[in-house]
Amino acid sequence: MQALVPIFTLFLASVFLKEKTSLLQKFFLILSVAGVVFIFLSKGANFGTETASLGFVLMLGSVLANAINNILSKSKGGRYRAMDMTAVVIFVGFITFNMLSLTSHYLEGNILAYFVPLGQMPYLLSILYLGILASIVTGSLSIYAIVRLGASTVSVFGNLGTVLTILAGALILHEPIYSYHVIGATLIIAGILGMNLMRKK
Questions:
Q1: % helix / strand / coil in the chain, to the nearest 5?
Q2: Where in the cell is it found (predicted)?
């Protein structure tokens, strides 16, 4: 589902930001998305009725939220620094999800359970990694790139995560790489390269 973010972003960018992409760029974008879809269908992804209910709606909402984030980053990028916008996003997320967690623990009658993970070193290390590298660094770089290259162009790079996950799985977890991985990864990379090489100067 996340592979659809570039398509949603392309549509929203053309409507709200008046970003123009050539027919060839659209082809390469769809090619990249097709690579991700091909890999997951080849792995036997299940899209049965039990999946395509609330979970499907939530995933679709996540895709739309990502696309809107790309559009807002581009539209506000000329007025605010990338780091400032990243700080606001992180702060809103911090307040929202901590309130949800506190509310959940309160309703369960065990509010103190909220503080238990704070005494565990693996949890704290995970928070530091997610907070610094996965949020501040990547968020700032993403906004910086969107402002300068355009929402449609940058969003397609998200599909590269699938390729990196395959490589990481092979190198770190010693997972096998099958032919469909290679075919899908080739489509993804070709789509990303084509989308950016065809970008109007």
A1: 80, 0, 20
A2: Cell membrane
